[in-house]
Amino acid sequence: MAYFDNAATTYPKPDCVYDFMDSFYRSSGVNAGRGNYKLAQSAGALIGDTRKKIQELLHCQAKQVVFEPTATIALNIIIQGII
Questions:
Q1: What is the pLDDT of residue 1?
Q2: What end-to-end distance do the CA atoms of the chain give, in Å?
Q3: Is 18:12 a contact under the CB 8 Å cutoff?
Q4: Which residues contact 77 (CB under 8 A, 6 or more apart)?
Q5: Distance CA 71, CA 47 (A)
């Protein structure tokens, strides 16, 4: 398992992170997979591209890359799968 949530609570972040997130929220802050309009499709493509990059980085299958809204939720899902 790879943990990528450490940046959620680190301060300060590099300016490129603030710049990207500001741009994303101003232009693409929509729910991916919840509509067939252009912005939702763009958000879905961004998620797909991110999943592919992580897959290549970790040398794993795409189905092994899972996104959850918080680390707490992800850990609870893992724990429920173990017990």
A1: 62
A2: 17
A3: no
A4: 68
A5: 18
